[in-house]
Amino acid sequence: MSTDLVLLAVVMFAATYPSRAVGLLAPGIERLPEPAVAYLQLVGPAVLAALGAVAVMVVQPEGQDPSFHVGIEWLAVAVCVALVAWRRNLLIGLVAAVALVAIARFAGLAALPA
Amino acid sequence: MRQDVPALKLREAHAAIPEEDSRRRLIVEALAIGVSAAGFGFVYGLSAREAGFSPIEAMAMSTIVFAGAAQFAAVGYVAGGLAWPVIALLTFLLNARHVLYSAALAPWLRDVPRPRRAVMAHLLTDEAFALSIGHFRRVGRTDERGYWIGAIASTFIPWNLATLAGVLAGGSIPEPGRFGIDIIFPAAMLGLAVGLITGRREIVAAFAGAGIAVTWALFVSPDLGLEPSVGVVAGGIAGPAVGLLVPRALADEQARLGTPESAERYAMPGSHIDAAHEDETHR
Q: Domain segments of chain B: what residues?
């Protein structure tokens, strides 16, 4: 059983822990400069949206350049986003997205992922 | 003692509920969030398995990193062949919001011995922040046991147990693509982004981040011989800068992350704190 990514987990811990600990262990840093706070507020939505968009819209068949992809996945993530915005419950959105894609693929209305 | 920290001011205004009553409510909320975290942890396990993580690797992520969004993102990074230093940078960016939670909780936890604060920091998640600061405000003082209950019962235990169940179940699904398992990752990323939006600046940053990332992946990465997923770095760094171009007067910001008020409206994944708060308001 592979354990290579355990080291990656340690690297990610090292990248995460300081953000969690800085306020609790360095009490002088309770108030950040306003521009830093404003930027930090926006980083999460930007990174997450970038990850989701690239995963849905960009495909790269082996040995070829990346290309723009349009498919049932767009509808699935749109349904997920709408449900999360409405119900504020991510799990409901994920279940709906998976169900939509699975039904479409079983019915032959959508292609399997490359 | 400093008097300008928001949590300390609010402490005086919300000191009406006995500790036992508040702790009972905390436990109910923690269990409710725990159910949701377990479901999310399960799909994380499935997703990690599909990306080729072994059970040990998936579990190492859930115990050592213990950050849902970053873990989901790591599934995509690894599948996309991203270099580890880039993964570390993106993880840092993605989890930088914890600085806001940590700073907001600091005035409440300053009397807790430093070694225990060090462990508390590892367990500080969106959910732990929302539950604990809501509890502290209700009782009007620090309740260390309340923090542990919120952090461990609501998230750490259900998240890890569900990860194990998901990664083991994922290995037994013959054609995961047919069941739509591949959609979990992008849907989770965009769903989590929605949970972090508190105003128009976040919306602009999210659209800009997505647009820049896709454009980079399609047109810049091939020319530079890079993986398409490197576009995520460009979008993640430049997107917030675009969002900041929205004037504060037009931002329509509601309950910024890290403020005690945000705990009342924000508890991803799940809406249980919202529901509990609304029930109390309408009573």
A: 6-184
